Amino acid sequence: MELVNYIGPWLAVGLAGIGVAIGQGILAKRAVEVIGKRKEMMSFLLTVTILGIALVESAAIYGLIVAFQILDSQTISLTASIGAGLAIGLAGLGAWVGEWKLIAGAITAMDKNPEMKWKIMTFMVLFIALVESAAIYGLVISFNILGHEAFKEGFTGAVPEAFLGMGLAVGLAGLGVAIGEGILAEKAMEMMGKREKMISFFLTVTILGIALVESAAIYGLVVAFDVLAKDLALYAAAGAGAAIGFAGLGAGIGEGILVSGAMSAIARNPQIKGKILTFMVLFVALVEVTAIYGLIIAFQISGAEGLDPLVALGAGLAIGVAGLGVGIGRGYLSEESLKTMGKNPKMISFLLTVSILGVALVESAAIYALIVAFQILDAEVLSGVAAIGAGLAIGLAGLGAGVGEGLLIKGAIKGINQNPEQKGKVMAFMVLFVALVEVVAIYGMIIAFKVINDASKVAEEVTKVIG
Fold first, then answer.
1. For the segment 316-362, what is each residue's pLDDT rounded down to a tens digit?
2. Under 8 Å CB-to-CB from 41, ≥6 apart: which residues?
3. What is the pTM (predicted TM-score) of this model?
4. 160: DSSP letter
5. Most exposed among 85, 226, 265, 453, judged by the fewest C-beta atoms under 10 Å?
């Protein structure tokens, strides 16, 4: 194996391992803090902590297995080494974040309600198994790459280049999904500790929430298999992987944040739990659109014929990076809206209006990126460098606008809750401020269009001269 191919093992065990070690340290820290307060629970908490550390360890073990598999292959290519490493490394990194967060939440719940410790531990193990699926997706793709016929003895055909894109697709999406699932599961554990009579309902909400968030990782898995089946070139596959990977990363984290907000609202006001659950599903569907945009561009890239691979990469970066910001921003504003509904149920109708308006306003950054991505893919003559420049212009600007607008609207919802009499004025100012923040994304779109147009004209002139 060539020396450069050792990058893969480093990514596999390094990314997963660093996360696992930090996560184990954080959950152990939380455990000893509670042991200091509850000496009578020392034996039980010691058991939970050791069990938790052992469960979190699995992500590092997956990374270790993949690393050994890469090292054991004498014919593996660089893209396959990196792709396999990224798939399990990034997904494993997300799994440890999600798992240590939910275990820490379980320990907090046991501290608040020791009588519930056995039930809480049971649900903790169940939720870990659900969060673990993101790392398993990464492991599946890693094994799929390493087991490809191109690396078997006697193979004489061309080695596919799509492996890097596969790793990005499932690794980044899995990273976001696992983190999001951990955030919501942590909140569920804490609420179960506070609201013993509502355990069954919180269990239902948690499993539903995890299932909803899971879709972004499934999109990444689908794209990973699609780019390999289409035998895409290196940068084209990377573009498809970036489109769904980054967009899925944002959607996974955003959806996890908003579901945790729904649980806080339900715990605060159980009488309206049905309404909160309904709005939670609605908001998740709205955030999910971000990942769907990434999925659309990924399929556009994989289905295009004769497309410059660097052009495909530019389109993928446009929607993927912008989608990352929009997904997280929507998660923040939806979380605050749901929490405020729980505090002030009389304002549910108005808050729903504000939230849907806010989601629509934040959405514009992703729409700008989607338009730019289509323009990049539709340009008849466009250099790859120009496409990447245009993609990054709108992608990074959209990332900032999405997060910024989400936080802004979150603050507006807080202001409305604190002073309902001023709700009309606050909403008016919210729209004004969003419009001002939006300018950043518009700047990115203007530059992206300028780059596409100018680069296309230059390419046409060069073609005429050569012709």
1. 999 999 999 999 999 999 999 999 999 998 899 999 999 999 999 99
2. 34, 35, 110, 114, 117
3. 0.91
4. P
5. 453
